Structure to design on (307 residues):
């Protein structure tokens, strides 16, 4: 398992046990966990992680992390302590080969993963789609920015809402 | 009179002599009480006639988010394999504001079927109760 500084900071979170139930109260959010995980993968240590599309002036290669959709599980008692998120990880570089290499490094560590990662209990992580694109260079330059977007489905635990007081009404 | 959501409904089974809530219930259907009819039409009739037969308390089905480590789910898994399996008391407690309202009955657990072992779903289990005797709605 890859242990980054971020992982070390959240070490001690409740271990993954394969059952639906409450996540550790102090567990990081999905986005924090993914960012920490990506930052610790071999070959990606120098790639910055952005939350939105970087500009032409940003440092490349880099990664963009986005959660375009996310749903939460429920049963008759309320929240069931799970969530299903679509997580998009985009690799960007001025060299197309770098994009492919980063995407492959990520897939090599994440497609099919389940277990604890960066303090988050991941029940299932599946690579569902992959797409290429490129950003045209600004006027007067020849600096194309290549990118590959990996779309993951991530089923994971979330903390049960602690401030809910249910009453028949 | 009021309209209620199904959210908050609780299924209880007698576990160690105590009515205990089954954990992580996703949905329930039932009890499916039915009354058969016997035709009493004869040659003198000008329209068909019927009499009611014995009420059948029917079945109750539910789906749970199966957790093999949960004690109430372990009870279900062992109860369905008992032979002979005694009918035990169950209760379906409604989420009604005006006091406690519930359906109580005796039943035999006739089905415990784990499912969802694929890349899409959560692990769940279908259960089915065959009710026996009276159903009391309070």
């Amino acid at each position: 398992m890859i242990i980054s500084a971020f992982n070390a900071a959240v070490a001690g979170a409740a271990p993954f046990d394969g059952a639906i139930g409450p996540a550790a109260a102090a567990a990081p959010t999905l986005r924090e966990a993914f960012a920490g995980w990506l930052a610790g993968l071999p070959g990606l240590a120098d790639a910055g992680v952005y939350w939105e599309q970087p500009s032409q002036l940003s440092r490349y290669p880099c990664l963009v992390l986005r959660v375009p959709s996310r749903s939460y599980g429920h049963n008759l008692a309320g929240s069931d302590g799970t969530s299903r998120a679509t997580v998009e990880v985009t690799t960007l570089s001025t060299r197309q080969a770098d994009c492919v290499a980063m995407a492959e490094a990520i897939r090599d560590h994440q497609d099919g993963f389940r277990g604890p990662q960066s303090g988050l209990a991941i029940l299932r992580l599946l690579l569902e789609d992959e797409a290429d694109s490129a950003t045209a260079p600004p006027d007067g330059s020849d600096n194309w920015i290549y990118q590959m977007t990996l779309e993951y489905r991530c089923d994971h635990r979330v903390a049960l809402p602690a401030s809910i007081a249910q009453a028949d009404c | 009179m009021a309209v209620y959501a199904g959210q908050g409904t609780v299924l209880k089974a007698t576990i160690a002599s105590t009515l205990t809530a089954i954990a992580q219930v996703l949905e329930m259907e039932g009890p499916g009480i039915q009354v058969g009819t016997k035709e009493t039409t004869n040659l003198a009739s000008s329209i068909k006639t019927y009499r009611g037969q014995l009420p059948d308390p029917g079945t109750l089905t539910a789906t749970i988010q199966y957790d093999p480590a949960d004690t109430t789910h372990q009870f279900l898994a062992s109860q369905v394999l008992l032979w002979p399996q005694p009918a035990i008391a169950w209760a379906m407690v409604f989420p009604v504001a005006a006091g406690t309202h519930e359906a109580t009955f005796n039943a035999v657990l006739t089905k415990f079927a784990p499912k969802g072992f694929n890349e899409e779903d959560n692990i769940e289990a279908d259960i089915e109760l065959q009710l026996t005797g009276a159903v009391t709605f309070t």
Observations:
- Chain A has three helices and six strands.
- The two ends of chain A are 48 Å apart (CA to CA).
- The first strand of chain A starts at residue 48 and ends at 50.
- Chain A has one domain: 5-157.
